Amino acid sequence: MIFERIKSEGLAHISYVIGSENEAVVIDPRRDCKVYADIARREGMKIKYILETHRNEDYVVGSRELEDITEADIYHGPGIDFKYGNTLQDDQEIFIGSLRITALHTPGHTDESMSYALADLNAGDETIMVFTGDALFIGDVGRTDLYGPDEAPRLASDLYDSIFNRILPLGDEVILHPAHGAGSMCGGAISEREYSTLGLERLQNPVLQKTAKDEFIRYKVEEKLEFPPYFKKMEQYNLEGPPLLHSLPVPELFSPGEFREEMEKATVVVDTRMPHSFGGAHIKDSYSIWLEGLPSFAGWVLPYDKQILLVMEDKEQLESAVRYLIRLGYDNIAGFLNGGIGAWYIDAMPVDSFNLISVHDLRDKLVKGENLFILDVRSKEEWENGHIQGAAHIYVGHVEENLDKIPEDCRIVVYCGTGRRSNIAASILRKHGYDRIYNVLGSMKAWKNAGYEVVE
Amino acid sequence: MIFERIKSEGLAHISYVIGSENEAVVIDPRRDCKVYADIARREGMKIKYILETHRNEDYVVGSRELEDITEADIYHGPGIDFKYGNTLQDDQEIFIGSLRITALHTPGHTDESMSYALADLNAGDETIMVFTGDALFIGDVGRTDLYGPDEAPRLASDLYDSIFNRILPLGDEVILHPAHGAGSMCGGAISEREYSTLGLERLQNPVLQKTAKDEFIRYKVEEKLEFPPYFKKMEQYNLEGPPLLHSLPVPELFSPGEFREEMEKATVVVDTRMPHSFGGAHIKDSYSIWLEGLPSFAGWVLPYDKQILLVMEDKEQLESAVRYLIRLGYDNIAGFLNGGIGAWYIDAMPVDSFNLISVHDLRDKLVKGENLFILDVRSKEEWENGHIQGAAHIYVGHVEENLDKIPEDCRIVVYCGTGRRSNIAASILRKHGYDRIYNVLGSMKAWKNAGYEVVE
Amino acid sequence: MIFERIKSEGLAHISYVIGSENEAVVIDPRRDCKVYADIARREGMKIKYILETHRNEDYVVGSRELEDITEADIYHGPGIDFKYGNTLQDDQEIFIGSLRITALHTPGHTDESMSYALADLNAGDETIMVFTGDALFIGDVGRTDLYGPDEAPRLASDLYDSIFNRILPLGDEVILHPAHGAGSMCGGAISEREYSTLGLERLQNPVLQKTAKDEFIRYKVEEKLEFPPYFKKMEQYNLEGPPLLHSLPVPELFSPGEFREEMEKATVVVDTRMPHSFGGAHIKDSYSIWLEGLPSFAGWVLPYDKQILLVMEDKEQLESAVRYLIRLGYDNIAGFLNGGIGAWYIDAMPVDSFNLISVHDLRDKLVKGENLFILDVRSKEEWENGHIQGAAHIYVGHVEENLDKIPEDCRIVVYCGTGRRSNIAASILRKHGYDRIYNVLGSMKAWKNAGYEVVE
Amino acid sequence: MIFERIKSEGLAHISYVIGSENEAVVIDPRRDCKVYADIARREGMKIKYILETHRNEDYVVGSRELEDITEADIYHGPGIDFKYGNTLQDDQEIFIGSLRITALHTPGHTDESMSYALADLNAGDETIMVFTGDALFIGDVGRTDLYGPDEAPRLASDLYDSIFNRILPLGDEVILHPAHGAGSMCGGAISEREYSTLGLERLQNPVLQKTAKDEFIRYKVEEKLEFPPYFKKMEQYNLEGPPLLHSLPVPELFSPGEFREEMEKATVVVDTRMPHSFGGAHIKDSYSIWLEGLPSFAGWVLPYDKQILLVMEDKEQLESAVRYLIRLGYDNIAGFLNGGIGAWYIDAMPVDSFNLISVHDLRDKLVKGENLFILDVRSKEEWENGHIQGAAHIYVGHVEENLDKIPEDCRIVVYCGTGRRSNIAASILRKHGYDRIYNVLGSMKAWKNAGYEVVE
Q1: D252-346: CATH homologous superfamily?
Q2: Interval B390-410: pLDDT, tens
Q3: Does the pLDDT value for residue C447 go beyond 80?
Q4: What's the predicted TM-score (pTM) here?
Q5: Interface test with B, best of A200, A202, A203, A204 (most B CBs within 10 A)
Q6: Where are the domains of chain C?
Q7: Residues of B with CB below 8 A from D248's CB?
Q8: What region holds the Rhodanese domain (chains A, B, C, D) (predicted)?
């Protein structure tokens, strides 16, 4: 038996390859799916099945892409009219080599959500692992708000049943393999730990301590999670089957002059450098989203109907940037700036900048009583756990639609947890003409490390 | 929390790096230990502790080597006079970042064997993983015969207590991380599966079904496992602390002429090619041990007081060969044949050969009643599970000391499971002057696949 | 200015990337052409031109493939009706960055052959390098027999003029970059050295010492070079523009059972292992061509209308094998044997073998006067420089069509230079039912190294 | 014959491996010399000789380091009392395989400078390549000012004789391989082109157009080149034999807190990020030298008696930084900041910054007549070729010793060619308390690209 976890950073999406005796199955493949075929080939195996745990909302599923380069069949759960693949029924069994995979219908996150219980018949009939998709995570459970507030109580009730009556009864000893790790937007508080069992979750998962069904439902219904606009696009893609890529797009390299010409067209510029590099010099009207932030934040700010132009610290980052974007369905990556921001300013192209400010300097300004509009762009939960006195709160994903709440006639100080999300917000404000922007280096983490006061 | 399994092929030895908040611990490091330092550096962590589960008998432990390139402290179990490192007491606790590691004294495989129970205090006080060394494997338990037959009952009794009274009570939900996987000589029937929990072992591990202590002890005392001669060397090394290597040895490249000169000195030639390549042409008097077989079989045939000369299919295999050998304490690798066997015969150096025979041809000869001495060199257990009618049995590791049982005046047909161990035996016989040797391609596996008869 | 030589092993084909100020040109690209795009991208350059020196006969040119993934235009020489690209005139100039490339019509190898003289205008107007295609090599000149014996005198005369009146007058100081290195079938005796100048060739190239035109022509007309059958296919491809691959084919992995089924179809099996591995055990009716021998010998023995099945020493060699084959237009690679020959015989599939014999044993047999048919399969030139007394000569490429000259009723001993080409021949004989075949390990090299006698 | 150029970036130092028939020679190895041993091993060769062209002044030669891991002997030129290796005489010959290397005494850059003429005896007796060290470059000749102004005329005279009477007479057709490419401080105007011949230099090299000896000497004596302080250290090292490293130093990783503690000791902080990243936030009192600038500029600003602490954009750059530093003899690299500048400011450590200004904004300020001190830190030659009106000139390497010429009471605008050297200067000024510093993004290149005026 072989078993591999493939983790896609940023989205914290986890897919799995399981194989036995020259046959393999892939669970929830990502769109850049050569990795699975390579593993199978290395092991001398053929991928026979592609199993989806549910119609994902946070990334483009790679099932059809993988089907295209293998002989595998796609399977997903019942009750939704997928335009591709086959439907599994509850308790249906699939066999590869000496392994048995049992499909368990575990709705709650979505109606068609499936879990997959794996037994190694060489060792015994007992389930050894369960793949729970977005039903049960390590340290959290799946969100139940995707169908809107009206449906949330029903979904929460379903999820309770799925977890307490289908999954946990498989046994404390069963190893847990969810579809996401820490950082995903499919759960609020997924643990950074990557290994767990049903027994450990039963004992340690805070949500599973709510063993009374009504308490569980109440908790879930009251949960407040962000809903990025690109989710709608993903749901449509993953219902109908997304367009096939066949291979990673290879964006063109543009000289500064060509890049500037492309900017005249229906394009949007994304600069993937870190805040301390972006602040000092960047192309006017570009969005700042640091490289590893693309999976989580591109879907908030980038439109699907414009071509994307990239500015990077280093050309070597292009492949990562492309992977991050196509996983979200941004296939229109026109090109990147050859030579980066250095080539841009050497060609005397117009640069823009805003200020980076240390927490100490911010503190000084506050003590002096300078006139500042302090904007906290973290999540509601982070905000509620403590913020800087006098700050206003708008989540980074909602800044662009709430500009009317941000004054233009004073200095704007933006902060988040470490200064990266606030840099996105700062770039949005700059793009909209705000000209006295300060991003706080280190933001709340540095503020607390400096021992400065927070209020709740 | 980071967690990495480092598997050393062949020995099926598994070591672990666990880290939290810039601190890391390594359990049972191997001798070529740069891998651990590289992981720690990649994660921005410092290795603070090196934990040994026991004085290993099957490989050179890398604790001192790793201590030399880090600031880590070495710890091992009580009751044996290690010449390096520090002694842990039962129930002693170690902390790194948010993790707590509790030392459990679990004798049985050896007297000083320790297990290590890990808790993630961020998630709760419960044990989430246990590192059991050679006490409990997936699908088997540690051998209890290392101190000889007189001590075996006592060790088996200790092991029973360690497993049933210390380890299993940690809980079904605890993830199991042993020191070996399938293929190790430290257990007889370790599973190929790499993931398990205490609950799964309780349910599926065949030895753990012997819940009555006397039954468990009887089973262990009757167990027959091979004891390679190099174990003694390893025990001495791992008690006193093995010599430091600082870096991998870089064997010299020898032209055929130089190689032949080296052969005149106190050297031994090891040819790491596959049987179908070795049979047709090899250097006279060389041992055949296929590359991946070095970890398991070098310790049976290679002396420690001679320099080793290597012949390989491909120069690229040199690093693997060197790693395999130094893990067993064979530090004296003089060099390798530049250009391999092809360079040797192009220089008109003397070559030797023996025959490769298919199972079909062997069957024909048997049916015709040809005069053959058929030698089965598999383990006793494999032999007892079925062999070719009329064969004699000598384990590959014992062939060189039992030549008197092998006739010189007839054709010798050697077989094992697939033809690789029998090639070792064939090379030994050839070295000792036997001149009508046949190695069976595919051996017992092919014999059975062809549908030919076996007897028990 | 950047300059890179891309050498394709086996064919000894050399292509070039030259770039200046964000623009690049590629000369004679190979079919697996991603390498050029990667270099250009790494340097921040765009490939603007693809220059062909001539319609190649020994490999599939990659111009159209490269054109497909870049914005480059293809150019080749005049006087032949290419179905793609543009035609250059003699003395036409192309500019990239600060470089000037002047096209020189240098017929002789073929009528449309071009050379390209490069000047770096930043340094001066003088030619610094010349790319001579198959007109002038290091140590040899291009063959002039491709249009048949009737045209050879005319082509030789043209080549004389091209070299002595167009190329050498560029100046002794000009660096020479031909389209092939040692080992190519486009010249008889190309040097292994990779660096030269026109002055060095004028002084050292043996053919250029024939400064009298009639002597030069006589020498070329009398030259005897082999003409592999696949040349015809290449000429057609490179005239019409070969089919586009878009990416490397990914052959399927076949289990021994599936492989055997595929063998029933219109397929041919190629085993790329070394002779000492192939001799001992191989699949019946397979061709032996060692991996690095594929570029030179696949075109002699493999048909274009059958699917190719591969057997390799190591799965890692697949990509090389595929590259070698598609460069010759063998796009129909059905798959490879999963697990190699070991998996085959473990599944008890039928194996075949023939004998490997050392030069010492061969000498013994000859001294004893055993009845042997000794077959030398080297080139005519090698044969004439000395062979084993009593041997017959048939070039390896002609063995399959000359079986009537090889007796079936005695032992056949095959030799070549080192034992690899003779292994091809041995596999052909075996395939045709000869059953007492001996391949000589080390062949003529070993024979001479042993000090045994050769006759001329 | 094998031939490889090993180019060490930054220093633009070029070393060579030449091999034939299992023997190899290395010319001017660098200190991190494993690369040569790896090439030799890959080719199945032994390095027999290490040839030095001269006692280098700009890097630590790796001869002793390479001697230590091979069996090679070191050779250098006559007339200077080297404390290691052997002395060659003029016209002495060395043979490896079929190659002959003739030592030519070619003083001028230094008294003991040697060139090495290579002939391939298989092809003929003529010289095919010459390795000229620092005597003759592509597009320039070696500097003759290392012994001071009094000796310069004598050295220039020697160099003239070496080039015109020893090297050029070898023949126009000879391929030229110097010890440096463009960017080296050992010649003023070495071409970016990497390939040349003696004939091409005779025709195109500007200095070689001065064929009258007195004109040549006058030109060389008037030449003004910078002399970095670390040259003295290199000369001493390369005379006595530098200390052996055995392997690359592995700097420790420091948390921000530990890093700050290290800063209290005898240390100096070097930040290798690009100007647009450094300007916005950096550790107070750190030097800015961008990564690829280390080989050229570390030797100007870093002392040898302090430990070095590194701040990098990315941990992956550590190996390059270490290589660059040890090549200059900076073996005391204490450690690097774990997590980079981001970790620093998240821990609320004190950050510093200065302004980045575009050429457009600078122009605006000038037009408005703002009070600015404009400092040009380029070389004298660049300055003389055109600078911004009103600027003052101090070479970047001399800024720290000329602070008295820079006013403290006004804004200081620093520029160079592209903004990287000026960032070094800006960091030096900041370190010395200047607090209104502006570095010009794109500097003179951008200024010119914008079409703004320069004066001479």
Answers
A1: Rhodanese-like domain (3.40.250.10)
A2: 999 999 999 999 999 999 999
A3: yes
A4: 0.93
A5: A200
A6: 2-240, 252-346, 355-449
A7: none
A8: 263-353, 368-456
